[in-house]
Amino acid sequence: MGLSQKISRLRELLEETLKILYYYRGRVVFSFSGVALGILSICVIVTTIDGANKKAYDIFEALGPDAIMIFSGSERQHTARERVNTLTVSDADLLQRIGGIYDVLKVYAVRGVNIKYLDRKWQTQVIGGTENYFTSFTWGFQSGSFFSHEAYENAEAECVIGAKVNEELFRGENAVGKVIQVGQLPTKVTGVLEEKGGATHGPNIDDRVIMPLTTVMSRLSNERRFLGMIRLKTNRDVDATIEDIKMVLRNSHGIPEGSEDDFMTRSSKDILQFVSVISGSLFLFLGTASIVALVVSGFVLANLFYLTIQERKKDIGIRRAYGATRKGILLSFLFESVFITILGGIAGVLLSIALEGVFEKLFNIPMEFSFKVVIFALVFSFLTGVLSGLKPALKASRIEPIEAIRG
Amino acid sequence: MIILNNIRKSYFVGERELPILKGINLEIKQGEFVILMGVSGSGKTTLMNIIGLLDKQTEGEFYFMDTSVEGLDDEALAGFRNRHIGFVFQQFFLLPYLNAIENVLIPMVYSTKEIKHPRDKARHLLRKFNLAERTHNRPSQLSGGEQQRVAIARALINDPDLILADEPTGALDSKTGNEIMELFRMLNEDGKTIMVVTHDPKLASYGRRLIRIEDGTISEDITT
What we know:
The complex is a heterodimer. Chain A is α+β, with helices and mostly antiparallel strands. Chain A has 14 helices and 12 strands. Chain A folds into 2 domains: 3-59 and 273-405, no CATH class; 85-261, no CATH class. Chain A has helices spanning 3-23, 25-63, 75-79, 89-95, 133-136, 149-153, 163-170, 213-220, 238-253, 268-311, 313-321, 326-363, 371-398, 401-405; strands spanning 67-72, 87-88, 101-117, 120-129, 141-144, 158-161, 179-182, 185-193, 208-212, 226-227, 229-234, 263-267. In chain A, helix 2 packs across helix 12 (326-363) and helix 10 packs parallel to helix 13. Chain B is of the alpha/beta class. Chain B has a single domain (29-57, 71-223), classed as Rossmann fold, CATH 3.40.50.300. Chain B contains 7 helices and 10 strands. Chain B has helices at residues 44-51, 74-84, 100-104, 106-109, 118-128, 144-156, 174-189; strands at residues 2-13, 16-28, 33-37, 59-64, 67-68, 85-88, 162-166, 193-198, 209-214, 217-223. A 6-stranded mixed sheet of chain B has the order 6-7-8-3-9-10, with helices on both faces. In chain B, strand 7 (162-166), helix 7 and strand 8 (193-198) form a beta-alpha-beta unit. In chain B, helix 6 packs parallel to helix 7 (174-189). At the A-B interface, helix 1, helix 11, helix 12 and helix 14 of A face helix 2 and helix 4 of B.
């Protein structure tokens, strides 16, 4: 058989399959939508897991693999959302002396501060940070720059605003050099941060005002001693450094042996681990759902197909009488079943693209759509088609023409 | 064209042998118009199935176009049927999801023969059988006689050597039945070899050779 003949035969097969599917459309719709749903959920899993991984990687990158964060309050207090201040400025100075530590960022945040520019009002968190805040977080500016060294030393009222705050107070106006009211304090804006975005849950990372730690402590909150967070960078092993940190802090806070820490440490590793746990449970949940959907639709397809074959016995008999081989019958029925599932698969992929935004909002997880997903979906739908079509197709191929066409 | 030597066919019910054909000797030549007549249970359908390569004899020799069909596998038999035989059935057996011309073209799907412009040929056959206006109608939109004419066009599309018709008038009223038989006569005059299997004695007069089968043997073989 020549190539052109093969192609024209394939076209005939395709045309015929379409006519058959149209004729039996009532059944086809069932099988088709089952597969589409199954594939849809597979797409959602793959894209969300990819999304979660990408997000984890982004966080990892942003924090730096060598960063360690220490928060005030024990793990238990954090879980209970109790806010206590246990870390002190002098703790930070102690920690600075641990070998390998080369960057210490001290942070004290005040939440729910009213800010105002002209008649525009907004409520945000004000973060007091040391001068290394922006370099430590590798956070760039869309305009202006960070507050001056003098401002830090003298606790002057200068600030840098996040993109969200900029939008709320200035709405496109140039903010640099303007004076806003932070609480009761008139404060000069020295810079506007680049938008980070991406955070789909928790507070908006761009919704913040950053001021010198000295200013926040002395002029905004009247807090001279305690810190909310200390962020360190080390060029030694992260886990070993954390051990050292714990020792130093427990010692300085006078925590007896056997009692829990009154602080909490986090490294990038913890965040990666956390995200992998989340994506693991997502995988488990959605994975089960989609496998169930696919298996059920596979069974529905197989059973409806099986019934159809009884009805199409004469059809098969006449084809066999006119020269169709067993193999030919087998293949045409398999083709039909795979055709339905591939079609369902494509519909599932398209549906998942269409619903991407909805799912992002629903699950609070960014989705990362990729070509891989399409391949994944097509392979799965192909397999469903072959597996559920095999038994009916075998049955069809075993029908003897004389029994089929007997009056 | 067809030679049957002492063909026997039995079915086995447990240990018991149930003989259907008890030694059939028969030769059919190119261009004949044979009526194979017998009451139900006489073995005529079994004989037709064997001649049509849809069933296998238990014993005896069968030559189709000078080829022994003994030991041919499924694929070879399918090819043989496709090239050499056109089937017509009592219940027409048109495929419900295809229109008239698509039904006529069914054997072409499995054909390895060089048929030039099969669609034109199908159209030509439909016109010849007064079905030109029915070309794109589904079987459900056709009368019984029309359906059987479509089925005959389907039997002819691949230029078979033999037309095998099993009770082709059985589902039709007698007037339409006669029209169908006239059609076979016309095809035979054009040179087609035709074999009609029936239990209806009224059809006997259409053929040029009448073979009567009774209880698994040929009881009468008259050429007129």
